[in-house]
Specification:
The complex is a heterodimer of chains A (113) and B (111). Chain A has 113 residues and is mainly beta. In chain A, 0% of the residues lie in helices and 50% in strands. In chain A, the strands form 2 sheets. In chain A, strands 2, 4, 5, 6, 9, 10 and 11 form a 7-stranded mixed sheet that branches. Chain B is 0% helix and 47% strand. The chains are: A mainly beta (113), B mainly beta (111).
């Protein structure tokens, strides 16, 4: 079954702790993305990667870090420097050429206690 | 990327066609029209996209006007499971590939 998986679905964290969200895809897509969604709001881009071992900051990268060591995986770390980390986090990957369609994972809901 | 305008909300009776409009009057020649939907607490789901011609797939049809300034997403036989926020996005090929989601249209399918 091809697609994008994110884990865990729900995550609780104490203030001051770093936490890593997993994103895996088996679609053979080169590009991957992390978005953040707050209640009633649209998606905001955190980081993106267009190829292995390369990634770029999006619009709201402060307090987050990523790595792209494998084509299939693009984990996101929410650090203690992120002031308002409670949100719904979405990972996506993209076909290339022509329409560049993005496909999204099911999301991880992070709550900071 | 061109801006889009969609109605805030719409209702549709179950089993009837749902027609969701989108205005994108500033669209440029190489920009595609994409439709996604997001059911509560789930990731956005890709529905369909088009450039100039009308498109149809197993989920929906996309009708793009000849001047490309507006489009309509058609769900031919809406079910309760189609209740969601529907987003119309206009985007050209770019290095970042970033998608800009506006407020979308909340479609409520009623029994």
């Amino acid at each position: 079954d091809g697609g994008i998986t994110q884990s865990p679905k729900y995550l609780f964290r104490k203030e001051g702790q770093n936490v890593t969200l997993s994103c895996e895809q088996n679609l053979n897509h080169d590009a991957m993305y992390w978005y953040r969604q707050d209640p009633g709001q649209g998606l905001r881009l955190i980081y993106y990667s267009q190829i292995v071992n390369d990634f770029q900051k999006g619009d709201i990268a402060e307090g987050y870090s990523v790595s792209r060591e494998k084509k299939e995986s693009f984990p996101l770390t929410v650090t203690s420097a992120q002031k308002n980390p409670t949100a719904f986090y979405l990972c996506a990957s993209r076909t290339s050429g022509g329409a560049d369609t993005q496909y999204f994972g099911p999301g991880t809901r992070l709550t900071v206690l | 990327d061109a801006k889009t305008t969609q109605p805030t909300s719409m209702d549709c009776a179950e089993g009837r066609a749902a027609n969701l409009p989108c205005n994108h009057s500033t669209i440029s020649g190489n920009e595609y029209v994409y439709w996604y939907r997001q059911i509560h607490s789930q990731g956005p789901q890709y529905i369909i996209h088009g450039l100039k011609n009308n498109e149809t797939n197993e989920m929906a049809s996309l009708i793009i006007t000849e001047d490309r300034k507006s489009s309509t997403l058609i769900l031919p036989h809406a079910t309760l499971r189609d209740t969601a926020v529907y987003y119309c996005i206009v985007k050209g090929s770019s290095n970042t590939g970033k998608l800009i989601f506006g407020q979308g249209t909340t479609l409520q399918v009623k029994p």
